[in-house]
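Thought: the user wants the 3D structure for the chain below. I'll pass the sequence to the structure tool as-is, report back what it returns, then summarize two notable features.
Action: structure_tool
Action Input:
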Amino acid sequence: MNQTRLFLLFAWLMVATLLWMEWNKEQVATPAPVTATSTTAGANPAATAPGAIPAAPAVAGARPTSAVAPAATGALVTVHTDVLDVTLDGGQMLQADLPTFADLDDPSRPVRLFSTDPQHYFTAQSGWVSTIAGAAPTHLSGFVPAGPQRAYTLAPGAPAVEVPFLWQGANGVTIRRTYTFTRGAYTVTVRDDVANAGASPWQGTVYRQLARTMPEAPKGGFTSGRVFAFQGAAWFSPADKAYDKLAFAKYGKDDPLKKAVKGGWIAFLQHHFFAAWIPQPGDASEFATATASGVGGTNYLIRELGPTLAVAPGGRASTVARLWVGPKSVEQIAAQNVPGLERAVDFSTYATMATLAGWLYAVLAWLHGYIGNWGWSIIGLVVLIKLVLLPMANVQYRSMAKMRRLQPKLAQLKERHGEDRQKFQMATMELYRKEKVNPMGGCLPLLVQMPIFLALYWMLGESVELRHAPWIGWIHDLTARDPYFVLPAINAGVMFLTQKLTPNAGMDPAQAKMMQFMPLVFAVMFAFFPSGLVLYWVTNGLLTLSQQWYFLRKYGEPAKKA
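Observation:
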């Protein structure tokens, strides 16, 4: 197989891979029919059997999109920090805005992660279940503000702000829930302190869950230039180091999750942002997924049930968890020191590809620390990759130079054997053996570049740090497509010039014609890719073209006519 055929093979392989990813996006974006499970069938706490977890409340009609659904107690509390604006009712975080991130479709508004709008319903919920009816609060009722204050703001210079709620049971048991918001942090600490002032022992199990409707597909679809990102449930078990996901379209098709775990985390992932419950490392709980009829239609749930607390009369106990509400920031996620939480930055389902993408991001972030511009950092990353691959490139271009010198002889063989392809191939292999030329000598760099390209595709599309990050001039967002298609056009020109320097001896006319269309095919495809990825590919192509021009003249003169 000569160099041109090899290039053609990998070009079509990349096209097929990207088309498969686009098809997979359509599959995930299509809701699947789901059936409510028995654990979430009840929406009314009063009608729920003791020990059962109530689902999100159902609504008969649509609510105004700007309104926040009232809590069962009617008492809402707002909290404002430097990175979060949220609304709570004690059992639920009903609304969460991220003021430092602008909405892609309306930059005048912040990103809203949690919402009670039926079309975008998404909440974090936590309550208790007990074997005794009415002996524990649910996320729907029970918790009330512990004081008269209904609005909290993180004071200038203050490290944190605490928001308390209280539940008082008829049996003398009280649960004080405290939400702690820390400056600059997207994690909210949720602590439940149980005090038993009654005459009988009390036992209860805490549950924490996320509930949401099917998220809408990005406006514009593939033509918007936004890279597809996984949307659905994800969880991690430290014991077996298992990271798993369940797309929304798979709810009701695949078996629901039901797994005993110590520590770990559960989450709902979406492009650039996610929400997650993170229990304490030693807490034993059960992870589960379910569906229910609720606000906006079908609600998809992922929950962790546990730990169970037994409190004797006069005794006290507590349980703590963290709630992440924010962006997929690699740096802030790493600061949490939670095993496996880095996988929430969903570079890839496959651990090897995710690890490669993580390494590439680490280098990119290191470059950005010196350069201060993500676009130039991408160019710097390409330069570093080409330096690492330089020894293999040397082998590749030496092989290509030898192939160019053999073109007159190959042309003679083609003319001599005419249409007898078998004899032509045998004569070609004999020529390679006699001239000590390895036609596969240039394969390795191409084999290495394919996984790097795919890892970069996910890394550049998934990195929230590049969201709305400009490069120069007309490129104002490296995660969006090139608005004037300048980079795709440059890439087409670079591919055309590269083809002119690539040996094509022995190629049949059909393959030659196909190769002529490849720059156009890639130009059209890259027109809808994120500009950061196209910038990488253009820079890589320019450096490859320069290397090829230099090495071909270093190792041999251009082939003469036969």
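Final Answer: Structure generated. Confidence is low (pLDDT under 50) at residues 1-6, 19-50, 56-73. The chain has two domains: 74-214+229-342, 363-555.
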